[in-house]
Amino acid sequence: MNPDVAFAVWSRERAQRIESVLDARLAPATATPAQLHEAMRYAVLGGGKRVRALLAYAGGQLTGADTGVVDCAAAAVELIHAYSLVHDDLPCMDDDILRRGKPTCHVAFGEATALLAGDALQSLAFELLAEVAPRHPAAQCLLLARASGSRGMAGGQAIDLASVGAALDLQQLETMHRLKTGALIHAAVRLGVNCGRALTDVENAAVERYASAVGLAFQVVDDVLDVEGSATTLGKTAGKDAAQGKPTYVSLLGLAAAKERVEDLRAKAQAALSGFGPGARRLAEIADWIALRSH
Amino acid sequence: MNPDVAFAVWSRERAQRIESVLDARLAPATATPAQLHEAMRYAVLGGGKRVRALLAYAGGQLTGADTGVVDCAAAAVELIHAYSLVHDDLPCMDDDILRRGKPTCHVAFGEATALLAGDALQSLAFELLAEVAPRHPAAQCLLLARASGSRGMAGGQAIDLASVGAALDLQQLETMHRLKTGALIHAAVRLGVNCGRALTDVENAAVERYASAVGLAFQVVDDVLDVEGSATTLGKTAGKDAAQGKPTYVSLLGLAAAKERVEDLRAKAQAALSGFGPGARRLAEIADWIALRSH
Asked: Which residues 162-221 on chain A approach chain B with CB closer than 8 angstroms?
């Protein structure tokens, strides 16, 4: 693809690409057990902003990786994200009935099937990385496993659960989000970056700063949108966090300061990329897009 | 350890060994998020027959692997097994309150924490294989991922769910169990075998026959015990399958024929090992133990 195309064109093309990759890697809805495979496809395909896949592709661009090499990294991280949403939406967790404008997986397929679909999506993520990751498959599996587990995403969700009605301070809130959302966003960037040339220590540290800032910005924007957005533009129930008494950046900082924090994180992300050449372009554009998105 | 010690001594020593390995690899119960880590440890430690770990160690013995090399394979497969039990016991699945004589994980920690603990245990299994598996880490991750996913264990559970009240024939029941229980038992043997010398095609085929027979025997025995056992010796609710109208080997074949099937599978497993030397001893002993166990 022409490297100069606008971000909107690039991101649309990449979102379509990851959709095809996922479609090809998920078992057909007719394969036994059909209901499970249908639920897995329902949970993964046809929706979402594919932020994590885009970050993986943009990370790959930074290190000159072949797009085909990045495919399985991008797909694996989207599978982990999709599984986490399915389990998050279950009645015993957030009890959400709407996701991406559609009934949530357990509403459509029943709780037991949704639970198993989430479980099998996690397995599939590792299957993909271990099977087709052409570069460092074991290291990539390790990175994704750590980002997903009890000291990453699942750990963040556990802290989130425990925080309902609790008086978290800003530091505790940030720790929670760095795990709950940040760890996987971070992994997305790293998995993509690792598909290309090796980076120097200085470059690696810059990538860490970028990923860390973007991961947190994503969550702060989410909190802002939970207050400002509507169910129509979000495709999910708005105002839910406040209604559940969950601490958010907006509840702790106020709306204006939360927005300032987003701008500050966006600037940090851009600054981290300053030492890279034009290869960093898509990462820079994603940072802007995340900070400025309205849904 | 003296290679001539009795099976009871060997298996007790190995069960203690895997307990230590798991204890060392699970995060301490005090690490944040403490409740999640406590639930993970509760679900994994202090119980179970460790059949899968024993099969991995015995498989390693067949190919002359160092026991230390087999440790992470044995631990990974036990982690997958433990996660599956936690999710299986949830109210939306089997709704069980007793496991290994203790309250199930969600009874002890709540449903949401149990769900996340299961999720994080699956991640940890891959983390372990990818991080410390000294031989073929990516291939080992791939093997475990396939055995765990929608065409393995999770798929078998989905078929099991769909089978409540349904009239499965023997072939369908066998397909279900080959996935639900057999896939992971099979993976346990293979993960262990892969830690040592490479096998010839003929030897590999024999290992497949062994693993397949033992995996199925395990399930048929389970069905027999569900009828004959008591909650005290089983450490879980007996008679549950029959009460739920689930098809079992006993309901399809009758008790006497189900026991004959076990004996037939035991003989098949032993026959598969006939071409191996004394390295196959522990695998042979496990096949007998599985077929003859009373709980």
From this structure: 162, 175
